[in-house]
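Worked example

This section walks through a single chain of length 434. The input is the sequence exactly as stored; nothing has been trimmed or padded.
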Amino acid sequence: MRIIMAGMMVLGMGCLGTFGAEPAVTAAPPPYVWATAYHVLPETHNNESGYFSLNEGLDGKVYVGTAKYGVNSYLVEFDPVKTSQRVVVDVHALCGLSATGFAAQAKIHTRNYVAPSGRIYVGSKQGYAQKGEDPDSYPGGYVIRYDPATGQATNLGMPMPKQGVIDVTADESRGLVYVVTCEDQHWMLGSTEQAKPYRELGPMLAPYAITLVDSNGCAHAVTRDGRIARYDPAADKVLVRDIREGDRTWTTNDLKSGPHNWVLAKDRRHAYLIRMRDPALIRIDLGSVDERVVKAENLGPLLEGKNFDSRGALDVAPDGRVYALVRRDNQTGFGGGFLHHLVRYDPAIGRAENLGVLAIRNPDFFHGLSLDAKGAVDPATGVKHPWTHGYHRLPDGTLTPMHNHMAMIVGRDGKTLYATILYPFTLLKIDLNP
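Given that input, the structure is written out below as C-alpha cells.
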C-alpha cells in the first residue's frame, strides 16, 4: 500500500518538468465546463494537499477533509451561500492527541459517508515517515462522526492499532460501522455506539477498498485477489464470490490499473466501478443470489485518449445518471499538458457523454495571484508560492487543472457538482444544466 500511495504522490509532483513549451495551436478550444474555485482554508493543510474526503451535507453545506502532514487533520465546512469556511472537526483536539511527525493524524483520506440522518463519518490516517522518524510511532487511525445538526463530533475509536483508516461506511439502521484500514487493508466491523470494540470480518481487501451497503443491508468490498466479499449482518456471515465479466473471471491482474472507485446505482442493487488508469465503466450486480459469482458488465470507455486518470471522482446523480472526472493527455491541438473532462453516463441510453473540460471562472482565486504550470509568484516580492503548480493556461488564457483531481460529488439537486484539485488545494463548484 505504501508503494501505491507514494506512486500517487509522484503522479502529482513528478510532472513538473514534463510540460514546458506549449505546442502550436492547430485547433479550436474544447467545450468548457465552468467552475468557481475556492482555496480550501489554508491553515488546515500544508503542501496544498487533500484526498478523497468530500461530501454535501443534508444542510446543503459541503465538507472537505484536509491533510496537514506531520501536524494534524481537519474537516472543513464550506457554506456555498455565504462562500465562507470554518473548521468543524479538529482531529487531534477531538481525540486528545498532541503527537507530531509520523505519529500525527496527518490526513482525513476517507470518502466522507453521509448517513440518512445527516451525520457524516470519516477516518484519520498517517502521513509519510520522514528521514529519522520511527515508522512504528504511528498509533493508528480513528473513526469520527460529525453531526451538522448539533455541531457535535464523536470519536468512535481506533479500529486497529498501527493501521490508519482509509474508508468508513455506516449502516445506522443496524448500528454498524464498516471500516477499511491501511497500510494493510483489513475489513473491520464496529458500532455506531462509542467504546464498543471492532472486530475483523476476515478477507483482506484491495488497496483503497470501499464498502458499499446494498438495499438489503449487505456490505460489499473488493478483495485483494480481485473478488467481492459480501457480509450479511442478519446471518453474521461473509461470502467471497468471483467477479465474472462476460466470459472471463477477474484476477489480481484486474487490480493492476490502479485503485478502484465504486458507487451504488440508484437501485442500490448495482454498483458502478472505474479504476484509476482504466477508462472502462463497469456495472456490477451486487444483488445476485448466486453464491459463487457476481456478474459484471463492461459499459465501454468513459473517454478515449492517453494517460487516463480518475481518482475518487465517480458519483450517481438523483436521476440515476453517472458522473465522473477523468484526466487525459491534451491531444486536441489546442495547447498541451493534461485536460480534466467531466463525463456523464446515462444508463437509459447506454452511452457516455463528454460534457467538457474543467475551466475556472475566477482565475485569481488564489490570493489574487496568477496561476500557471510553474506556480504562483507574488509580484510584490518575486517569491514563488510552493505547491501551486497544479493549473495551466490554454492558448485562449483559460485556466484549467493540470495534474490531479482528487474527489468529485454530485449535489442533491442533481445540477451542482463539487470537486477538489491539488496544488493549490481547491474546492470547485460546478453548475450544470440538467
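What to look for: Residues 25-45+311-434 form one domain.
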